[in-house]
Task: inverse folding
């Protein structure tokens, strides 16, 4: 984990509407062991503020929230990753003194109104960046950390289109789909919100250090965890609950059957948020979670316009007809046979066979010529890399060139080898698709 660098001195803490005298009380109650947010909310509603809660006798607290909550409130101040409570308080005030860093509590007008509809909103949030995004209408985009190139493209494109429409994009700063969603959100006016599972003074994963700083500058980073909290597996389901809470709907791009994204979708459904999912190949492991959500009632979407229409935006019919993966305009269309006839050999491959003197197709012999099959035994690493880049969704020659950085001649040669060996086929529109064996 990479820490954000903090100055040792600075201006007075920026704490939204929170009174400086209340900071210690908020920290103490927010981190009190055994005090659930719903009990704290009841105490605040009854007694008016954090200091007033701390000043109540045991009996009054127990009558409002139960004896366990009363013990938690009146217990010793909690320790944290930073040490004693006094050390935690000092570090929190120091962190809040940095421009762009804000502590937002349930009593602040800056507190996200969407979270107030949750049964257990966190009493205190650590926010880096734009406070206005906490009040924006938002869509969460989440998915696999081990995303395919197609999934990365879809997440970024959906995020950019929704951001262009003015929706904020919420995600969890993880590798894969989350990172692509944040980058797409940053490219539009809607912006992006990263909900993290560590303290707001840390960046996890470290590979997203640059992205985190870009979001802190142009978007918003939100954490409910005390400063110094490292990444722990148990933290991330709770983070997913906040992702769902901040958004009006959640889009699942790619997800395996045991993906954390499905936890986010479950939270969203329980909170009455819309759940969307992009379908994929029945052979793709990362499509199975999406298909499961669709079977359970998630809305199947193929374009960003499908989501915008659900949210009441007016979209043009031409835009709604756009495919999930848009073919690039540059380059030539590769001739092909109809995809419905099975593992077809393209016209280009047949011409090469005839030119080489084999004439296999013309004589009715199997399309996978012996020299082509032999070229993949043992497996060609570059051909395997090309297959990985293709994934389980059709892609054009131009898309594959962009994903692999291969030159045209190498790409054409490998595609021909894979096609003749029966591992890929061609589709109308110059697209290639994996053939499952």
Result:
């Amino acid at each position: 984990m990479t820490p954000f660098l903090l100055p040792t001195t600075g201006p007075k803490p920026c704490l939204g509407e929170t009174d400086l005298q209340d900071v210690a009380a908020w920290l103490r109650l927010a981190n009190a062991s055994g005090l659930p947010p719903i009990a704290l909310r009841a105490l605040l509603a009854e007694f008016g503020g954090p200091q007033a809660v701390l000043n109540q006798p045991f009996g009054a607290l127990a009558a409002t929230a139960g004896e366990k909550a009363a013990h938690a409130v009146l217990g010793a101040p909690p320790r944290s990753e930073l040490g004693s409570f006094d050390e935690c308080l000092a570090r929190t005030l120091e962190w809040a003194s940095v421009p762009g860093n804000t502590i937002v509590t349930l009593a602040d007008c800056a507190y996200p109104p969407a979270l107030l509809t949750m049964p257990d909103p966190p009493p205190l949030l650590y926010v880096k960046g734009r406070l206005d995004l906490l009040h924006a209408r938002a869509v969460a985009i989440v998915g696999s950390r081990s995303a395919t190139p197609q999934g990365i493209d879809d997440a970024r494109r959906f995020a950019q289109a929704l951001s262009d429409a003015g929706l904020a994009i919420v995600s969890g700063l993880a590798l894969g789909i989350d990172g692509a969603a944040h980058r797409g959100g940053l490219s539009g006016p809607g912006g992006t919100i990263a909900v993290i599972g560590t303290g707001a003074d840390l960046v996890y994963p470290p590979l997203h250090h640059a992205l985190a700083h870009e979001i802190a500058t142009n978007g918003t980073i939100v954490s409910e965890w005390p400063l110094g909290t490292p990444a722990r597996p148990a933290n991330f389901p709770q983070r997913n609950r906040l992702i769902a809470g901040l958004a009006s709907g959640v889009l699942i791009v790619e997800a395996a059957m045991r993906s954390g994204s499905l936890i986010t979708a479950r939270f969203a459904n329980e909170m009455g948020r819309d759940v969307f999912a992009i379908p994929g190949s029945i052979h793709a492991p990362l499509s199975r979670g999406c298909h499961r959500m669709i079977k359970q009632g998630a809305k199947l979407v193929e374009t960003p316009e499908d989501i915008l229409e659900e949210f009441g935006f007016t979209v043009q019919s031409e835009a709604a007809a756009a495919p999930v993966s848009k073919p690039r305009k540059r380059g030539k269309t590769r001739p092909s046979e109809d995809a419905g006839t099975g593992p077809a050999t393209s016209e280009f491959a047949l011409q090469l066979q005839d030119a080489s003197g084999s004439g296999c197709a013309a004589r009715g012999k199997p399309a996978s010529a012996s020299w082509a099959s032999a070229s993949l035994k043992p497996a060609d690493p570059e051909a395997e890399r090309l297959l990985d880049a293709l994934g389980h969704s059709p892609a054009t020659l131009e898309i594959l060139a962009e994903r692999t950085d291969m030159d045209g001649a190498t790409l054409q040669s490998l595609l021909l080898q894979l096609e003749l060996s029966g591992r890929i086929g061609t589709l109308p529109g110059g697209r290639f698709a994996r053939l499952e064996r």
In short: The longest helix spans residues 149-164.
